[in-house]
Amino acid sequence: MIKFLLMVNKQGQTRLSKYYEQVELGKRAALEADVVRGCLARRKEECSFVEYKDYKLVYRQYAALLIVVGVTENENELSIYELVHNFVEVLDKYFSRVSELDIMFNLDKVHIILDEMILNGHIVETNKNRILAPLLALDKMTES
Amino acid sequence: MSDVVEKTLTALPGLFDSQTGAAKITNRLRQLVKSITELTSKHEEENLIKQELCAMKEQVSSPNTSMKQMREIMVRAMYCEMLGYDASFTYIHAIKLAQQGGVLEKRVGYLAVSLFLNEGHELLLLLVNTVLKDLQSTNLIEACMALTVVAQVFPKDMIPAVLPLVEDKLSHPKEIIRRKAVLALYKFYLIAPNQVQHIHGKFRKALSDRDPGVMASSLHIYLQLIRESPDSYKDLTGSFVTILKQVLGGKLPVDFNYHSVPAPWLQIQLLRILSLLGKEDQSTSELMYEVLDESLRRAEMNHNITYAILYECVKAVYTIHPKVELLEKAARCIGNFVLSPKINLKYLGLKALTYVVQHDAKLALQHQMTIIECLDHSDFTIKRETLELLFRITNAQNVTVIVEKMLDFLRGCNDEHTIIHLVGKVSELAEKFAPDNSWFIQTMNCVFSIGGDLLQQDVPNNFLRLLAEGSESKEEDDQLRLYAVESYLTVLKGHTSHLPQCFLQVMSWVLGEYAHLQGSVDRREVIRLLTQLLDQRSVSSETRVWILSALTKIPEGQTDLILHLAERLSSSQDTVLRQQAQELLHLSQDSQLHEWVLPRGAPWDAIEVDSSLSFLDGFVSEALAAGAAPYKPPHQRQEELCEDRALNLEPYSFSLPVSLSSCSITDRQSPTLLSVSSGLSGNSTELSQKAGSSTLILEGVKRVWGKDGYLPQKEATAPLVDEPSAAVQPPVQQEAAERTEPRPELSTRNQDKQQLASSLFVGLGVGSSVSLLGRSEAPPPRFRKKPRPHESSSSGTSEKSSGSSCRSSHHTTDIFLYGSFLEEEPATSKSAFDHTPKSTTANGLSQNKDTKEDKHANTSQIFGGDMVIVRPSTIQDKHPPSESSDLTALLPADLKDLPHSDVISLTSDPSLSLSSCRLFRDEALLLLIFISNCTETVIKDVAVQLTCEELKTASLRGNIVDCLEARSTSVCHYALLMDDPHTNVSFTGTVSYQTQPGHTNTLPFSGTLSTADFIRPLVLTTEEYGKLWLSLSHDVKQNLKLLTDAGDPLRTTLNALKDALQLHVVDIIGSEGIVACRLLSGAPCLLHCRVSGAALVMWLRSPHPALPDCILYHCQRALAHR
Questions:
Q1: Which end of chain A has fewer CB atoms within 10 angstroms, the N or the C?
Q2: What local confidence, expressed as pLDDT, does residue A85 receive?
Q3: How many structural domains is chain A composed of?
Q4: Which residue range or ranges hold the AP complex mu/sigma subunit domain (chain A) (predicted)?
């Protein structure tokens, strides 16, 4: 099960955070800092999974942006690793060559995309067209 | 036409405003994002967000803010919250936005709600209507977002409101709606499974939905359901197999593919479901062999996602009923994984292997060399996973090597979580497989010094219990203990300042307990080493307690050292240490007491801790008798303090002509409150019942002292002495360098690895094939722990056992702390409560008789006759309660007219049943005890003894009956006098009788009386009252509850009091009333009541200091219980 998903840049600044298990607002910053430190400390040739407290962290880096997913011990890390890539591919399709700034200026839309993919910590949709369908419909309606 | 133009014109400014406004806002978001990207320090961030929050606050409260602007504000609020700043003032606006905005605004509103509010937030209730509206909307997008938010956060209590709508959506023509409805129902199932029980049939429909997305969504529900009860869904196995086959066969639309792999996450989900269904079920497993085989075969493409599927597939193959060919294929897969140069794959391979070796340990043998390599891998995660794998394959033969590897890893590790986790595993392995004593002790030494104070408390507790309980053979146990003692002495002789507290505690306990086993070591040396520890500054006060306890156990003949120590510590700042020093001093001087308090080698379970402190009862009752206030727990004291304050607020104004000087309110230490509280919960058991269990709150102080003295509360759970809290202290810095052993030489590395392999994997396979170097035969384990039936690997029991071991390791302290009291225990428990009866002779009065001779003379003259034997033919029923009602008929004729209470049953046994009735005479309380013979035979020599320490008791008649006929009842009369008021008093007594000659039975009984039984109205005029009032010295004043349910509150309240307490209402003038009563024919008590607001201000005066308190207490009760 997925506990949280973070998008962080290399400086450790959070660009997006989504928790599927309640974490107090005050504790999030510390958790995020810990998580990012744990992931950034690792070298390229090391594996993309790292233990953190009771979670396993699965992380994947795209340019300066790091996507970290906290999962439970029984989760299939490699499938999450690929899920992250699927997510980025969806973002890429929507924003056509997504960048950190795209995500920042469209925080709400990135969240809407994520909501289609992951619900309550479960992967609910991975079909790119279907993930984007509601958002594209929204865009169409606001344009007209 | 002109109308339209006009409208357009008037609308224009607003239009412009909102447009420019929107542009401004968009700029604001843009500006915020820009500023965030330019942040360089935390301080800057704080300033920026604070400004932003202020600006937002202003905007949201402005009526001109449009929904579009509000949407921007929500996104800005998301930023603030994401950075950790509270923006809760926007929550309500998020809900508003979802309610009123256009589609995009609405979506952002819902999004903000799902991000900001967690389940159970009260604002969510405001969302329900919006959701309901949107669910009914014809606009697909609106219905869609409503379903999304329902599946994210929705108040549990409101599920019934939306459930029918969501259910309807299951048959919606659009797949996205059906899909989201299924997910919403899944959410409902998670938070309130009972609510969706009736729609399980519809889940099946969703599973066979023509759309793959809807089907996939239903799998979430099924995974959950099958995990909970696999047996109920076996019939679906075929469906899941078919679905997986179709997916594998590429029957899904192409857009479900991910890198040409068809719906990989769906495959993974299906494999998980299948493995749950096939687990330990051969016939079900057989249904899926084919599809699993195909799945293994298809996933040959070289991509991460296929490996992820393979991993899941391998797990499934090893979970279900085994099939050899599949197992072989799966094993080959794992081999490819672990050998892969791709590090992520290697990790997954190790993880799979860790899972698989639980079922088939031999598989590890095939990959032993890889495992060894991974053990030295530079990647922390890989190493960690390898250790996990090794932990699973540990047996008695390879334990030393594996534990050594784990300890090596631990020494280089500084992640707290990993240390705690791994150290626990090491100690588990050491306990399970230890080859010999020295290894076991050495390993545990490492565990304690590495794990230190991060350790879970159960690790040291288990270890100490293991030492203490031992195995079947005492010799072996003593050897182990002896080794521990020796080892610890060596450790203590070295540097001790870096040792964790928990290790020091373990050592001092062991030394205290077992140092005597070591004959060759000088006791003085042990004492010296322990004393040395006491002087160290790094030693915590908790550890000092452990050390001192140990020192208390050791001495025997080393009095000089101990005396010196005790003297030094008796001036310590720490009160606990000081107390212990005193005890140490005491015990060291009295070897007999020492032997008794700390018996050497006593079996563990034989020591019982009296956590209710019943041995203190004598002391407590004496103190109470001497006028001490009953014990009150702090919370109660706090409450009273508040009440007290409330009391003082009352102005000192009286309408009665009384000079203030005569009533010194200020000098009272509020005994009222004391007595009130004593009636409610003031008893010494509170001391030990930290949990404050309500069962122990007894009616009155005295009731605690039952017929057998104080009854210790067996169910007392709270430990007497606070567990030394497992204070987590910062980890002691490990001197890793000092410990790490030199790495093997590179040249011989390969050979070393082979050797390592042979030692690691020994005992996994069969016979000689196991070892690479042919040194397979390992010595059989010499060291076996006694199997402990109550300790299994499950966490539940380990918790329990840790609890018990906590107790065992502390109870020595308990005994020690209360050791000096223990000595007196047998005596106190008997003498304090089994008072010799004051009146034992028939028709005799107590020894107090002489003081009140004249008064009692009348009574005894009046009742001087013989006992009355009544033989009612009506009494057939044996059961006392129903019998009692008839018993009032047995009241002697001369007493029938007296006011009396109901007959209550006291006790009964097969032969006799006892009931009592109280008769209120002016000068005494008559207690009638009805003794009913329930048998068909004659009972002889019935004798009643009644005692009550607070009251004067006199048996008037009937306390000895020579012969009680079958089914008859005898009445025994007692006169009770109360000189000193007590809130409640209890009496105890016994009835002895003979059913057969020479065979005496006794039946104990007890009961409670309240002051109210002894209060009599005092009839006097208003003038007399006024005079008497002025002459009385002791007064109490308090506010009572006023009964306001009737027209005249004062009169109602006074009547209620009159009924309950037999008071005499002298007069009622306006809002004031005067009431009088007295204690039997003794001390009067005058009550002055005045209505003040909703309260009754009651002022009591009496010549007797304690009487007003008692009466006040009963007044409060009488009013409270109405």
A1: C
A2: 96
A3: 1
A4: 1-141
Say which residue, A61 or B794, is predicted with more confidence: A61
**Within chain A, what is the greatest distance between any pair of CA atoms?**
50
CB spacing of A47 vs B382 below 8 angstroms: yes
What is the residue type of B463?
F
Question: Which residues span the domain enclosing A105?
Answer: 2-143
pLDDT of residue B828: 37
Q: Considering CB atoms only, which of B107, B258, B347 is closest to A86?
A: B258
Q: Which of B214-223, B377-386, B658-667 has the lowest mean pLDDT?
A: B658-667
CA distance B360 to B315: 12
Q: Taking CB atoms and an 8 Å limit, are B347 and A111 in contact across chains?
A: no
CA–CA distance, B216 with A124 (Å, rounded to integer) = 8
Indicate yes or no: CB of A101 within 8 angstroms of CB of B37: yes
Chain A's closest residue to B271, CA to CA, is A76
- Average pLDDT value for residue range B285-289: 93
Instruction: Answer whether B381 sits within 8 Å of A49, measured CB to CB.
Output: yes
8-state DSSP, B193: G
**Lowest-pLDDT choice from B81-90, B438-447, B494-503, B683-692:** B683-692
pLDDT at B175: 92
In B965-989, which positions are buried (b, 16+ CB within 10 angstroms) versus exposed (e)?
eebbbbbbbbbbbbbebbbbbbbbb
Report yes or no: B962 and B1015 within 8 Å, Cβ to Cβ: no
ipTM of the complex: 0.96
CB contact under 8 A, B115 and A133: no
Question: The tokens of B229 are what?
Answer: 């009860």
CATH number, domain at A76?
Answer: 3.30.450.60
> What is the C-alpha to C-alpha distance for residues B504 and B546, in angstroms, rounded to an integer?
9
Instruction: Give the tens place of pLDDT for each residue, B641-689.
Output: 655 554 445 455 444 444 434 433 434 443 333 333 333 333 434 333 4
B556: phi > 0 → left, psi -120 to 50 → alpha, else beta; which?
Answer: left
Which residue of A45, A60, A127 is the best one to mutate when testing the B interface, meaning the one whose CB has the most B CBs within 10 A? A127
Distance CA B45, CA B38 (A): 9
B312 and chain A in contact, CB less than 8 A: yes
Contact A79 B268 (CB under 8 A): yes
Rounded Cα gap, residues B1054 and B1036, in angstroms: 18
- CA neighbor of B360 nearest in space, from B776, B770, B777, B765: B765
Q: Could you read off the pLDDT of A14-38 as tens digits, one per residue?
A: 999 999 998 888 899 889 998 998 8
**Which one of A79, A83, A114, A144 would you mutate to disrupt binding with B, by most B Cβ within 10 Å of its Cβ?**
A79
| Cα–Cα distance list, B373 to B188, B338, B741, B746, B752 (Å) | 48, 11, 18, 14, 11
**Whole-model pTM above 0.80?**
no
Angle (CA) B886-B890-B891 rounded to 5° is: 120
- What is the token pair recorded at B782? 């010499």
Q: Is A111 on the interface with B (CB under 8 A)?
A: yes
B98 by Cβ neighbours in 10 Å (0-12 / 13-18 / 19+) ranks as: buried
3-state DSSP assignment of residue A65: strand
* Residue B920 burial (CB count, 10 A): 18
Q: CB A141 to CB B347 under 8 A?
A: no
A22 contacts in chain B (CB < 8 Å): 118-119
Nearest to A82 among B36, B107, B305 (CB): B305
Q: Which of B282, B273, B237, B372 is nearest to B755 (CA)?
A: B372
